[in-house]
Design brief:
It contains one helix and no strands. It has one helix spanning 3-34.
């Protein structure tokens, strides 16, 4: 099943994208606190 490897990579990428967007939100909140 060749789809399994590609699918897990896709899921991992989506997870990473979510984590990055969460980090960006945290950075924005920290930046606004420092203002």
């Amino acid at each position: 099943m060749p789809d399994a490897g590609r699918n897990s990579t896709f899921v991992r990428q989506k997870k990473i994208d979510r984590e990055i967007s969460a980090l960006k939100k945290n950075l924005e909140m920290l930046g606004s606190l420092e203002m």
